[in-house]
Amino acid sequence: MLGTAFTQRLREICGPEHVITDPLELGTYECDGLTSHRAVPALAVLPRSAEQVARVVRECGAANVPFVARGSGTGLSGGALPREDGVLIVMSQMRSILEIDPVSRRAVVEPGVTNLAVSNAVKHLGLFYAPDPSSQVVCSVGGNVAENSGGAHCLKHGFTVHHVTGLEIVTPQGELTWLGDGTGVPSAYDLVGAFTGSEGTLGIVTKVIVKLTPIPEQVHTLLAAYETTSEGGQAVSDIISAGILPAAIEMMDALSIEAAEAAVQCRYPEGAGAVLIVELDGPAAEVEQELATVRAICENAGSTEIRAADDPARRAKIWAGRKSAFAAVGRISPDFIVQDGVVPRTSLPAVLARIAELSREAGIRVANVFHAGDGNLHPLVLFDDAIPGQAQAAEELSGAILDACLEQGGSITGEHGVGVDKSRYMPKMFTADDLDTMQLIRCAFDPAGLCNPGKIYPTPRLCGEVPGKRRTNVPAGTEIF
Amino acid sequence: MSERAVVLPATVDETSAVLTDAAERGLTVAVRGAGQGWATPRADLLVETSRQDQVIEHVAGDLVARVQAGATMGHVAEVLAAHGQRLSLDVPPDITVGGMLATGTAGPLRFRYGPPRDLLIGITVVRPDGVVAHAGGKVVKNVAGYDLGKLYAGSHGTLGLIAEATFRLHPLPQSSTYLTAAFTGHAAAAQAIVAASGSMLQPTAVELHWPAGGDLTVGVLLEGTASGVAERARQLTDQIRSSAAAASAAPSVTVSGSPPGWWGTLPGAGYPVARTSFWLSRLAEVLAIIANADARCSAGGSAGAGLLYLCPCDGADVGELVASLRMLLGNRGDASVLTEPWAPAGPLAQAVKDQFDPEGRFG
Questions:
Q1: ipTM of predicted complex
Q2: What DSSP string describes B120-147?
Q3: Do β-strands B45-48 and B29-32 pair in parallel, antiparallel, or remain unpaired?
């Protein structure tokens, strides 16, 4: 589809072995973690330097060819879904950790570096990289920037946007430039903040300056079992009311516990209707006291069993079921949709009740796994594609769950992004003026609309010409502050 | 005064109507909160937010509050404290929420909680053309759409008016303790700041107070439970003393339940005139440049977070000092004179400005 001269120029830029044109090979890039949307790119390149990325993007601009960047391809909203008429720029070859400054607690890394590799590289310095999406073993830092990834521990430690202080990017026009200087103190507009979470629509990240965090002196993980999610929810409310901010508060319902048990034999308390996992981290002098308080709260809320661990192996065992939950539902259902919605934390009981009702009405099972501390739900909608109509019904149920989140004043996505998957829900959450205003940023970065087009916004804004500046006359002698 | 009019809208709708009208007339517009900042640019129309000064919604169970831009931070703190909570931005109480956001100002708590944008989860703005737009929401975790809040925070009123903001809150700490240590040499002070900042004891703030020609005082805030804070203060005292021992005699560290008088204040009398931000590994060099500058300056701020304000004595010119700092820091930090008009820097920032305010009427 793309001209041979164009392809040839990309081969000259990246080297022939780093330009993929074979349809079979291209097929491996047809989707990211959201497999329900697929598109085989016209061509894929695997650049090894920022300069190569910039030159590829300039070629695309000159030929009016859309381009999409891809990290490790673990995204769950189709943010890295290729364009059939475009170039896929695969960033996985750029995976060097360029610099570590332990005093400043900063590292400069290439975008293809995996999230966990950053923490592993600085562990000997007593530091770690705080954002920890479940896919951290494989997901890339560049992808984390695009999606503003969270993770179980963002309740206390924040999201990617709180841990990135500088970005080298290739703009959609092919210019290599820096946003931010690594200090975290912007001297002009906070374009690092605006760029982070823009889902690959404002340019391609080629270097990332991340903040590193001292490894907490002590970490305690506590598991409490309950007969119902509402009892567990009460414990969560009481922990927050006590003024404690745990590193993570996670909850799983009976169905997701059943799935996790089938997959990884996590041996959570038998017959539990809900399992709550609370992790406390910080100075030992604080964590010990917090643990005692949290334990008492969990007991008062009616827990049937409590387990606590402070050594890495036993903590990992508590986490095993939770971390396997998404994949585990494959054991109890041939197909499933991972939903990602958010409600104010105090609305959790109401929205869980509503999900149960929707599930009953549709005759489709929903397993609930959620970040209870910040109201981020991950309902897993279970269905069988072999049964006619079930996929459609599951899709509708999944959408109705988002409606329920919005009714409670929540959001259509807490961490997976909008991508191609949820752009149609954006007008339910935002007004036309809101979406128009957001896209002014897009027009500033990508007036030609070639950078990951068709994502986030259901209706692209026409950027148009910017009218000439009207300078006002400042009378002589006017004070200018 | 060169303003032709000052207008005090009472609602977002009124603000929108005023700005729509101003756009039709091609008027330049400046926005003012409490007028506490460094500079409100002169304009045809001055829009004040002081009549929109309420906490609209505080859901204690969700640790979230939505406030009007004209509310003072002191008022917000009072409302939240009644429920044992706070917005972890300890700027002076007279500053308005809008002013704090527009200038990106934060107090000592910046070390632990970051600048205002880190706690901002939703925003309502009125664009220069009068259109009202929202982004974010009232949930802490939310990645739907571009985050306009990040862009407006620190935009100095150049992209329109911030009308309302929703923040993530934190529980008030049960106990607070301040450690202070005075140093005669800047190298030892830098080592103490580095040690405290990287400590597993998790300080909430790491500040420097350095009057021109005087000692350097390092202040560290610990927050938590009463017994936890006491134990951490003991351990951190040891860490600070041993960190600085290599450079000079170990300092005496004072532990107190109340802040030193200078806590949260800007250096010098009046407003500081310059600011520098840097990677912490350059702190010792930054302090050396300030100590050796021809212009004698008072310095202070969130040194542990890589930020210092400078105030020269007797109106001395800081141009040379700022230039030296810039040369030292290169592209890993900045130094700037705050009394100069604020303007977007670089082609991307200018492109953003041109999209939001194509006629250049704001700021």
A1: 0.97
A2: EEEEEEE-TTS-EEEEE-SSSS--SS--
A3: parallel
Whether B228 and A444 lie within 8 Å, measured CB to CB: no
Nearest CA-CA partner of A201 in A179, A171, A167, A180:
A171
Cα A249 from Cα A152, distance rounded (Å): 8
**Strand bridging mode A164-170 / A176-179:** antiparallel
Which tokens is B126 given?
């009125």
A71 touches B: beta carbon within 8 Å: no
What gap in Å lies between CA B62 and CA B10, rounded to an integer?
A: 28
Q: What six digits make up the tokens of A220?
A: 């305690």
Is residue A259 classed as helix, strand or coil in its secondary structure?
A: helix
> Would the CB atoms of B332 and A191 count as touching at under 8 Å?
no
Helix axes A50-63, A4-14, angle to 10 degrees: 170
- Identify the segments of chain A with pLDDT beneath 50: 467-481
Which of B140, B283, B309 to mutate to probe the A interface, most A CBs <10 Å? B140
Are residues A245 and B332, on separate chains, in Cβ contact within 8 Å?
no
Report phi then psi at A188, rounded to 5. -135, -150
Determine the Cα–Cα distance for residues B44 and B1; give it in Å rounded to an integer.
Answer: 10
The residues near B335 (Cβ < 8 Å, ≥ 6 apart) are B274, B275, B276, B277, B321, B322, B323, B325, B326, B329
**Token pair for residue B213?**
């020609």
Give the Cα separation of A470 and B59 in Å (integer).
44
Note the pLDDT tens digit of each residue in A268-303. 998 999 999 999 999 999 999 999 999 999 999 999
Give tens-digit pLDDT for A318-346: 999 998 888 889 899 999 999 999 999 99
Which strands form B120-126's sheet, in the order they lie side by side? B55-59, B64-68, B161-168, B120-126, B132-136
Q: For strands A305-309 and A248-253, give the pairing.
A: unpaired
CA distance A436 to B20: 17
